[in-house]
């Protein structure tokens, strides 16, 4: 920090504080490292449960079981599909509404805003929503991942306030050239809003990737289960998946469940870990915008 | 602006494109937000999902009486308040402390690196994070090995099967996962403080702790107040994704929060009306809590949400 003299003595506090911050980093990273090490260990080693800093016997056996498991890979497919479709639909739907409401000459604007604000303050909650999904035929349908999360008031407001910062002159000149409202939105406004689109798309994508709860509540068929819901069943309910049964047959009586569990956890987390360094600044930006609005 | 109804109609037609952007959204809100709100009315009925809505008989406050005399309901209230109180009393200051200490780090690069690493776990799913926690707390897990190495216990304890540990498990896992992320907002508030204030204080001979308390903490007080209001008003809520992951049949008597009770009664046992009555009552109390927290914060600190 500029306010500290550069040549000031490094005191006890600085040393203690630096160590504390290093401890925070260790506590944060170690759980993921633990999963990685155990997933790379041979199944026999991992089932011993000893704590290692590095794999004692490097083996990709667990990953090959995980990647050859049809059920798990189907979950991976469902999760990928809902992440891609869910994110695109959410961003488009929310941005279009936000653009409409951002126009002050929109007739009924105040009413529209009130209607959407109330949705943030009150909600029906779990049971009425469950009944609604059942009645709409969304229970046990892929679209239950997409349609109910198409819109949030919060993201609409973020879009709206960003659109307001785009100079009117840009839109006016396109209007003079004969562009319609949709033309202006898609050719002028959205291309100039890439930063906010990236932020909201990333939040939506992370939500879709990590969510397991919708799958627990609304999905019955095995072939529609997202990856995270499968992991929930494998880890928390300790249900034997096809994968584990197969692995048991392969490795005999020694239950190699642990390392395969860890390999599946790694598969489910890798996309987040790989993209994280690149996307984290957008995610922080999102919180900032949200905090100022809220 | 428009003197006649037809004038207004014409204006509306002229902006049909803008209207067509907004109206689908309004329809969506009616279906996915307002209809569920209307259906809270089944709290007063004996609703059956197989029949049309209006054919179910009205039963008045029967379900409210039922849950108020259910011991399991009161147990879930106790669990919710227990977990929320630990989170509020011990957990609320942690991100503030973290932000304050991080702010004292001189190297900008180290500070950024720590910050970036600290909010990584927020983006890891609860299935993964909970899975790690269950493994560590289990037989021969990291926690047991650590405790035995330190001589604090002489045999394995199945932490997650013994109910008395559950509240603390939720507290520690939540702290580990969310501290960095919750601190962002305080870090941003601290970054907005005028550096001149620190220089002036330093000239006046204020030491590190005095500067931290009188400048940093006082400057971010409004942020703290607002987040505290939100935390207090959320006291009847719980982190469902976390609890759902960590609960099991052995620890259920300490793990069943109000959210989980509503889920168990409504979706596992199929008592839709009964659960909706609980939901209904909770929404009203939660709204009251929000207003109360807001009022007391206004009185005590002068800062409030509305």
TrEMBL record, chain A:
Its main location: membrane. Keywords: Cell membrane, Membrane, Transmembrane, Transmembrane helix, Transport. It is a multi-pass membrane protein. The chain crosses the membrane at residues 12-33, 76-99, 111-131, 143-163, 184-207, 260-279. Signal peptide: none annotated. The keyword Transport applies. Residues 76-279 form the ABC transmembrane type-1 domain. It is found in: Cell membrane. It comes from the Bacteria. The keyword Membrane applies. Belongs to the binding-protein-dependent transport system permease family. This is Aldouronate transport system permease protein. It comes from Paenibacillus silagei. The lineage of its organism: Bacteria, Bacillati, Bacillota, Bacilli, Bacillales.
UniProtKB/TrEMBL annotation, chain B:
Belongs to the binding-protein-dependent transport system permease family. The chain crosses the membrane at residues 21-45, 85-105, 117-138, 180-198, 219-240, 274-293. The keyword Cytoplasm does not apply. It holds the Pfam family BPD_transp_1. InterPro entries: MetI-like (IPR000515), MetI-like_sf (IPR035906). It comes from Paenibacillus silagei. It is a multi-pass membrane protein. PROSITE patterns: ABC_TM1 (PS50928). This is Aldouronate transport system permease protein. It comes from the Bacteria. Keywords: Membrane, Transmembrane, Transmembrane helix, Transport. It is found in: Cell membrane; Membrane. Residues 77-291 form the ABC transmembrane type-1 domain.
């Amino acid at each position: 920090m500029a306010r500290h003299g550069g040549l000031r003595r490094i005191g006890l506090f600085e040393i203690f504080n630096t160590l504390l911050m290093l401890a925070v980093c260790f506590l944060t990273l170690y759980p993921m490292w633990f999963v990685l090490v155990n997933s790379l260990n041979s199944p026999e080693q991992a089932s011993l449960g000893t704590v290692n800093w590095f794999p004692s016997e490097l083996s990709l056996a667990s990953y090959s079981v995980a990647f050859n498991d049809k059920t798990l890979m189907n979950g991976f497919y469902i999760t990928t599909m809902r992440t891609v479709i869910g994110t695109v639909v959410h961003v488009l739907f929310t941005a279009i509404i936000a653009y409409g409401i951002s126009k002050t000459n929109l007739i009924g604007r105040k009413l529209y805003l009130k209607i959407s604000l109330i949705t943030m303050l009150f909600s029906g909650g779990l049971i009425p929503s469950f009944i609604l999904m059942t009645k709409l035929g969304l229970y046990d349908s892929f679209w239950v991942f997409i349609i109910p999360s198409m819109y949030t008031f919060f993201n609409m407001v973020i879009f709206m306030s960003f659109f307001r910062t785009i100079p009117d002159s840009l839109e006016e000149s396109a209007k003079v050239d004969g562009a319609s409202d949709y033309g202006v939105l898609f050719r002028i406004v959205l291309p100039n809003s890439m930063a906010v689109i990236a932020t909201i798309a990333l939040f939506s994508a992370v939500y879709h990737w990590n969510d397991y709860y919708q799958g627990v509540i609304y999905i019955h068929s095995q072939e529609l289960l997202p990856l995270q819901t499968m992991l929930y069943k494998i880890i928390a309910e300790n249900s034997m998946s096809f994968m584990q049964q197969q692995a048991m047959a392969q490795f005999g009586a020694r239950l190699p469940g642990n390392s395969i569990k860890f390999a599946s956890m790694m598969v489910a987390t890798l996309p987040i870990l790989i993209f994280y360094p690149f996307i984290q600044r957008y995610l922080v930006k999102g919180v900032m915008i949200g905090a100022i609005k809220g | 602006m428009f003197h006649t109804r037809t004038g207004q109609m014409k204006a509306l037609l002229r902006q049909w494109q803008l209207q067509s952007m907004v109206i689908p959204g309004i329809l969506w809100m009616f279906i996915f937000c307002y209809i569920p709100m209307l259906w809270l009315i089944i709290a007063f009925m004996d609703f059956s999902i197989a029949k049309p809505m209006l054919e179910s008989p009205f039963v008045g406050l029967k379900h409210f009486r039922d849950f108020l005399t259910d011991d399991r309901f009161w147990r879930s209230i106790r669990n919710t308040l227990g977990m929320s109180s630990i989170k509020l009393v011990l957990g609320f200051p942690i991100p503030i402390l973290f932000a304050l200490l991080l702010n004292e780090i001189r190297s900008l690069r180290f500070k950024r690196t720590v910050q970036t690493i600290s909010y990584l776990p927020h983006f890891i799913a609860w299935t993964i994070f909970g899975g790690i926690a269950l493994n560590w707390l289990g037989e021969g897990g990291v926690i047991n090995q650590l405790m035995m190495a330190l001589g604090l216990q002489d045999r394995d304890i199945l932490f997650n099967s013994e109910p008395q540990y559950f509240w603390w498990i939720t507290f520690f896992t939540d702290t580990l996962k969310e501290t960095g992320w919750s601190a962002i907002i305080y870090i941003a508030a601290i970054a907005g403080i005028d550096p001149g204030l620190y220089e002036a204080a330093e000239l006046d001979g204020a030491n590190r702790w005095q500067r931290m308390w009188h400048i940093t903490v006082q400057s971010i007080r409004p942020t703290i107040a607002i987040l505290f209001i939100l935390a207090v008003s959320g006291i009847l809520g719980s982190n469902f994704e976390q609890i759902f992951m960590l609960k099991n049949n052995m620890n259920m008597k300490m793990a069943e929060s109000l959210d989980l009770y509503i889920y168990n009664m409504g979706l596992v046992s199929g008592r839709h009306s009964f659960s909706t009555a609980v939901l209904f009552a909770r929404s009203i109390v939660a709204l009251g809590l929000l207003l109360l927290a807001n009022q007391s914060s206004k009185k005590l600190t002068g800062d409030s949400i509305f």
